[in-house]
Specification:
heterodimer, A: alpha/beta, 6-stranded parallel sheet, two-stranded antiparallel sheet, 11 helices, 8 strands, about 45% helix, disordered N terminus, B: about 450 residues, alpha/beta, OB fold (Dihydrolipoamide Acetyltransferase, E2P), Rossmann fold, 7-stranded mixed sheet, 22 strands, about 25% helix, about 25% strand
Chain lengths: ~325, ~450
């Protein structure tokens, strides 16, 4: 992946930069804490961390308005924090407690917020793609200008239902943005080892869907591309594909020893392309913030994350009668 | 302040592991993200990253140590210039147990009292009736509900311009337009997912599968997306929708187009499952299904589509789920069936009457919820039961009812319950073989004679 210069840099305000910094840092610190709680046995099962990919969701959330919807895979903690869901509720769901978004019944991979229009958290690879198009269908049916962001990975991009959905989304001009978070590894299989058609956004052409590749390590580049996609959808021109090239620093899940890539590869990405460090450097070199200002933000974030961990440890387990609720409406 | 580094859990099933190798030694400076050790789990050898920064004050567990329990302190991290505390490594495991929840008392075994049974009539006495086919009743039910609620729409293959592969949606495109009667490409997996997403978004889709055989392509969305989301979201959102279409054998269409899915779907918590027999039930239950806030599987039958029944003439008529219908009252044996199985059950009862055997015939109508009370009350009266269904014998609805009756009315049984089902084979094409593969009236009569010792 060639390094790119974020084109919109000149037009970005100090406030925007600070909010991106804060939002990305929250995700990173939250995920580090989740990893820690997993190590302590407080979080069980599968736990997929978003560390490294923060710029994708933060950049795209910056393009949304009230009423827009989002749906994603099981690597979902970052999406929830970015759309404004409460860190306490997310962390308590990870620990399977009453105070979690799903009252402890969903877990890391299955969380939802009607209030924030976050429609999951889906554990079946690719299932969220038609679901996202269906959410967009509901907005089109009602005649509003909301859009839906359907996030999926380079692995899901090989699922058949993705292409069934592309076909119908374009046929019916559904206002859905297909966001392919290409972090280059579907669990342990690299993109090159799973397809010869490695331009994932380009596959939309066969269905008449516009798309583009985006530098997913640059929040500014993501935001800029996101604005284009959103404008396309809101104008009633149908779906749009963003293939966002990103990188996950951690394993696929907590139990992944990550032997399919070198330590150096990860280290190089962290040192040269880290999305948070990029914004941090812009804030400092542009004299938008001092080291002390940033330390203050770091401290605020640390407090939010620590509080969420405390909440997630002390919130009680769900009452046993919860076993039998929410099966039928 | 000194920080203990604990043995981490590095997989969903790990309880202990081997501390394979230390990559840092005492006195080394540690930054967050540094690999400090290699740990062997039950799955793999994992690199263990530091979360905090500091100086490696003391290593508590030597490398090569096996069976180190999760959460055991393995090292102590100190700040620059700080001494390692004397009690380092003596702390209790750091994982705090969740506040305990009192265990609920085990449910008491159901007392074998006669259950209360609702056999109130489905429509008021004296209601005028008209003769209608199942096909017409289904179309009327959908059209009435679409007039009533603008959020209801129909999607599927050939439902619009073609007027329905089996002509169920005849005339609906003309009345409701292409916004609400939507022809899809042949992509069951995709459009079932889109419809489920639309239901998450608050609409009330009716998804027509040309046959339920094709719904196997879509079963992930039916079960994982539609049926489970209400639970997984803690009640925040679900899928108010209907999946409908012909189910079971038609005639001579072979193995891939002739499967009864009743028992499959009836197994899933979160789904409601309806399989009617008469046109009145098709109409009343379809209207109820569209109004139900849950995903409903509505299993129709191609052979029944053209069959005529008496249907009440009412402005608004629904039949509640979970209410079986005693179609024929009798004292000697209970025959329980549903859907097209009722054809054999009723025919058998007529013939048995000629032999002086007075059979009670129950149409379950809905399989989830299932009206156990009506079945149990009947068995308490007749002391014998035969079940009839078109599906395969293993894990059938009849198997389930047998177990239920054994558990709840064991002392009332005078004979083992017998299950009449389709044969345990893929559906053959040859006319004679197909006939033999399906359940038959003669088999029902034989079963009844066995349980009544005649």
């Amino acid at each position: 992946m060639a390094a790119r210069k974020p084109a919109a840099q000149a037009n970005v305000s100090k406030e925007e930069l600070l909010s991106y910094y804060r939002d990305m840092l929250l995700i990173r610190r939250f995920e580090e804490k989740a990893g820690q709680l997993y190590g302590m046995g407080l979080i069980g099962g599968f736990c997929h961390l978003y560390i490294g990919q923060e710029a994708v969701v933060v950049g795209l959330e910056a393009c949304t308005k009230e009423g827009d919807k989002r749906v994603t895979s099981y690597r979902d903690h970052g999406h929830m924090l970015a759309c404004g869901m409460d860190a306490n509720g997310v962390m308590a769901e990870l620990t399977g407690r009453e105070g979690g978004y799903s009252k402890g019944k969903g877990g890391s991979m299955h969380m939802f917020s009607k209030e924030k229009h976050f429609y999951g958290g889906h554990g079946i690879v690719g299932a969220q793609v038609p679901l996202g198009a269906g959410l967009a269908f509901s907005d089109k049916y009602r005649g509003n200008d909301n859009v839906t962001f359907a996030y999926f990975g380079d692995g899901a991009a090989n699922q058949g239902q993705v292409y069934e959905t592309y076909n119908m989304a374009e046929l019916w001009d559904l206002p859905v943005i297909f966001v392919i978070e290409n972090n280059q590894y579907a669990m342990g299989t690299s993109v090159a080892r799973s397809t010869k058609s490695t331009s994932l956004y380009g596959r939309g052409e066969a269905y008449g869907i516009k798309g583009e590749e985006v530098d997913g390590m640059s929040v500014l580049a993501v935001k800029e591309a996101g604005e284009r996609a959103v404008a396309h959808c809101r104008a009633g021109k149908g779906p749009y594909i963003l293939e966002v090239k990103t990188y996950r620093y951690r394993g696929h899940s907590m139990s992944d020893p990550a032997k399919y890539r070198t330590r150096e590869e990860v280290q190089k990405m962290r040192e040269e392309r880290d999305p948070i460090e990029q914004i941090r450097a812009m804030l400092l070199t542009g004299s938008h913030a001092s080291e002390d200002d940033l330390k203050k933000i770091d401290k605020e974030i640390k407090d939010i994350v620590n509080e969420s961990a405390e909440f997630a440890k002390t919130s009680p387990e769900p009452a046993l009668d919860e076993l039998w609720t929410d099966i039928y409406a | 302040m000194a920080t203990e580094i604990l043995m981490p859990a590095l997989s969903p099933t790990m309880e202990e592991g081997t501390l394979a190798k230390w990559l840092k030694k005492e006195g080394d400076t540690i930054s967050a993200g540094d690999i400090i050790a290699e740990i062997e789990t039950d799955k793999a050898t994992m690199e263990f990253e530091a979360v905090d920064e500091g100086i490696m004050g003391k290593i508590l567990i030597a490398e090569g140590t096996e069976n180190v329990k999760v959460n055991t302190p393995i090292a102590v991290l100190v700040e620059d210039g700080e001494e390692v505390p004397a009690d380092a490594g003596q702390s209790a495991p750091a994982a705090e147990a969740a506040p305990a929840v009192a265990a609920a008392p085990a449910p008491a075994a159901a007392a074998p009292a006669a259950p209360k049974v609702d056999q109130s009539p489905d429509w008021p006495e004296g209601t005028p009736m008209k003769t209608q086919t199942v096909r017409e009743a289904l179309r009327d039910a959908m059209a009435e509900e679409m007039r009533r609620d603008p959020d209801v729409f129909l999607m599927g293959e050939e439902v619009g311009e073609y007027q329905g592969a089996y002509k169920i949606s005849q005339g609906m495109l003309d009345e409701f337009g292409s916004k609400r009667v939507i022809d899809t490409p042949i992509t069951e997996h995709g459009f079932a997912g889109i419809a489920t997403g639309a239901a998450f978004g608050g609409l009330k889709p009716i998804v027509e599968f040309m046959t339920f055989n094709f719904a196997m392509q879509a079963i992930d969305h039916i079960i994982n997306s539609a049926a489970k989301t209400l639970y997984m979201s803690g009640g925040q959102m679900g899928a108010p929708m209907v999946f409908r279409g012909p189910n079971g054998a038609a005639a001579r269409v072979g193995a891939q187009h002739s499967q009864d899915y009743a028992a499959w779907y009836a197994q899933i918590p979160g789904l409601k499952v309806v399989m009617p027999y008469s046109a009145a039930d098709y109409k009343g239950l379809m209207k109820q299904a569209i109004r139900d806030p849950n995903p409903v599987i509505f299993l129709e039958n191609e052979i029944l589509y053209g069959k005529s029944f008496e249907v009440p003439v009412l402005d608004d008529f629904t039949i509640p789920f979970g209410k079986a219908k005693v179609c024929r009252s009798g004292n000697d044996v209970t025959i329980v069936s549903f859907g097209i199985g009722m054809t054999y059950a009723l025919e058998a009862a007529e013939k048995l009457a000629e032999d002086g055997i007075d059979a009670e015939v129950i149409d379950l109508r809905t399989l989830r919820p299932l009206d156990y009370d009506t079945v149990i009350a009947s068995v308490m009266k007749t002391n014998r039961m035969v079940t009839v269904e078109e599906g395969w014998p293993v894990g059938s609805i009849g198997n389930h009812l047998s177990a239920y009756v054994m558990t709840h009315a064991f002392d009332y049984l005078d004979a083992p319950v017998l299950n009449c089902t389709g044969k345990d084979v893929p559906m053959p094409y040859a006319a004679n073989l197909e006939k033999h593969a399906l359940v038959t009236t003669a088999e029902v009569i034989d079963a009844v004679k066995q349980v009544t010792y005649r």
